[in-house]
Amino acid sequence: MALIVQKYGGTSVANPERIKNVAQRVAKFRAQGHQVVVVVSAMSGETNKLIALAKEISPSPDPRELDQVCATGEQVTIGLLSMALKEIGVPARSYTGGQVKVLTDSVFTKARILSIDEGNMRRDLDAGRVVVVAGFQGVDADGNVTTLGRGGSDTSGVALAAALKADECQIYTDVDGVYTTDPRVVPEARKLDAITFEEMLEMASLGSKVLQIRSVEFAGKYKVKLRVLSSFQDEGEGTLITVEEDRNMEQPIISGIAFNRDEAKLTLLGVPDKPGIAYQILGAIADANIDVDMIIQNVGHDDTTDFSFTVNRGDFVKAQGILEKVKVELGARQVTGDHKICKVSAVGVGMRSHPGVASRMFKALADEGINIRMISTSEIKISVVLDEKYLELAVRVLHRTFGLDQPV
Amino acid sequence: MALIVQKYGGTSVANPERIKNVAQRVAKFRAQGHQVVVVVSAMSGETNKLIALAKEISPSPDPRELDQVCATGEQVTIGLLSMALKEIGVPARSYTGGQVKVLTDSVFTKARILSIDEGNMRRDLDAGRVVVVAGFQGVDADGNVTTLGRGGSDTSGVALAAALKADECQIYTDVDGVYTTDPRVVPEARKLDAITFEEMLEMASLGSKVLQIRSVEFAGKYKVKLRVLSSFQDEGEGTLITVEEDRNMEQPIISGIAFNRDEAKLTLLGVPDKPGIAYQILGAIADANIDVDMIIQNVGHDDTTDFSFTVNRGDFVKAQGILEKVKVELGARQVTGDHKICKVSAVGVGMRSHPGVASRMFKALADEGINIRMISTSEIKISVVLDEKYLELAVRVLHRTFGLDQPV
């Protein structure tokens, strides 16, 4: 007998029919003798509907009240799912974040979980009940309703699994696992049986939007065994996200090829090479609330250096305007930029122990005549910036180069 | 400076525009120096939508989970109204029933309020904030969300007013007060400036659906000054519902003419006249969950008696079937019935001190050739059952007979 936390996202509980399906799936696990805690999101579209209502009242709604409103989406789902479970003879009880209670700080709309009281849940589990918890929400020390921010239900699931020391946290979504790359670009893309937390973090932040990144960090920190599964398939083991040592298989060098086409790059040329310039440039960008992704500064020459970074494509024009002012302040030579670029990354913990991965990657791209515009590396990933037109070609070439289309 | 509890129903908060209007009205009272606690219902239609969702999951949804789901309707409204208040510069804070806390028993879907903690509300009021409370809901001793049943928001408003010893509880609705009768039947119907609790109870149960009857009982019990007002008009004092002694005006004999066209009558003829027959007849009807309104048993003769009662027209056929069985069991002679009847009542505390009201009523009806089928009286009302076709005529005649079309 195991204790399993299952999290179902908005599309999995989008209507009464699907909620009944989730109930059947939960019942199946319970019939196998497992204890089950279910975490659910709002029915898909509901949270957006509530936010739209709030925006009709106020262009920037009061955050406490916005949380009061938005938390109702999940509250509806827990009630409906518990009804559905009881309807098929499975004892169940629903809990809001406050009823659990999931104690958070008071940063409304993006609260952080401080602690979870397992008392109520444990009592129900021991009594043979399925516990159904509203994801995405908690309550602060004063009893105010808080929410964890978009996608926070994944984090709720992992946090509950950590608090209950669950044997596994299963995240049900509309894909059946994590793939070596996007199957829409590479039809041969293969579902991974396992991936490490670090790889998952690099994959997620690079655009493979399967799991909320905070939940993966959380799971890594608290050693929660995390599994991504499809709620629309009855079979399949999904992808297990785990610590490196637990991956019981021949370790691949590269686990996946991630990519992001929504990028733009900006360069400040001829920046006087002295301490503090990185802060002066990026401080101005951050002040304008623009997220920066890659940052590259190469060695200088003639007492000047070139400074490049990438931003979301939507922020390109705004960032360019800021750089023009910074150029004058710093006495730099020129601002250049390109918003028709993409980023392609090879991710894998295996590269730590296998030298030559970078050169294999660069050779494969060169053989196809693809020019690399920028390079950035971390411990377990190599990212290149390319002209946007090469995106699909580069992903396919790299997927094949590292043997990702072959069975393990 | 007064402490006022205002309750706004579903049509008053049906959409963001109306919620903004409510915020303006609240702001006006606050600007006059009053402390204001606002109780709101779900936006109109929302509760029905939630119940429909639940019914798709289960034909008879688990009551605890149904309350968990339905309570979200009011939670959305309190958040939106608080946002709207802050948007126009009025400090406000929303509270669910559990946050207040409104402690109830654990009878889900029709819980009764046990106590109200005024601490949080008082602190906010003292800090100059408007307190916005979700009507219709509370929390039991175990922290389960409960609801008070349909129309329970009125009860919430009155209970909060009682707990806070508010100077007045204002119920905003889509009518501007309580009328001498339905203006759709009698265009000369006049708004009453004041009515006693007892009269209001008789009027409400007789079909003038302005206030939930439980809230009137509650207000009477705790001596809460209750006022019904329109949320769609800026002027007007509405109707004050008060104890008899407080009514500062010449007391009318009759305050209003109530009526109900949704009735059917059933009679068991030739029932052996012995102890226990009333119970044997009505017990069988109650067991079938049929509400009985009027009950009439006249003196018997030849050791038998006739027993009549009225039910909702929708229950007529079912009740008839039950009576046929009871007839055999009791050895009664015959079951008769009529589902084309109506009930018309004259209500007024003044009849206690004015003899002859009944005979004036019967004469007025006789003068129009209206045959009375049944009569039932209480301390402050006289009800007659008539053929349905006479309803409008009877109401108009009685309204004029008792001078209700004349200014006080």
Describe this structure in words.
The structure is a homodimer of 408-residue chains. The first copy, chain A, contains 13 helices and 18 strands. In chain A, the strands form 4 sheets. An 8-stranded mixed β-sheet of chain A has the order 3-6-2-1-9-11-12-10, with helices on both faces. In chain A, 49% of the residues are buried. The longest helix of chain A is centred in the first third of the chain and has 16 residues. Chain A is globular and about 75 Å long. With 408 residues, the first copy, chain A, is of the alpha/beta class. In chain A, 35% of the residues lie in helices and 27% in strands. The two termini of chain A are 31 Å apart. In chain A, α7 runs parallel beside α9, α8 runs antiparallel to α9 and α12 crosses α13. At the A-B interface, α1, α2, α3 and α4 of A face α1, α2, α3 and α4 of B.
Which strands sit side by side, in order, in the main sheet of chain A? Answer: 3-6-2-1-9-11-12-10
Strand percent estimate of chain A: 25-35%
Helix content of chain A: 25-40%
The oligomerization state is homodimer
Quickly give the structural class of chain A. alpha/beta
Q: Characterize the overall form of chain A.
A: globular
Pair of chains with the largest interface and how many residues each contributes: A-B, 37 and 37 residues
Characterize the largest beta sheet of chain A: strand count, sense, and whether it forms a barrel: 8 strands, mixed
Overall pLDDT score of chain A: 91
**Uncertain stretches of chain A:** none
Distance between the termini of chain A: 31 Å
How many beta strands in the DSSP annotation of chain A?
18
- How large is the count of helical segments of chain A? 13
Integer-rounded radius of gyration of chain A:
24 Å
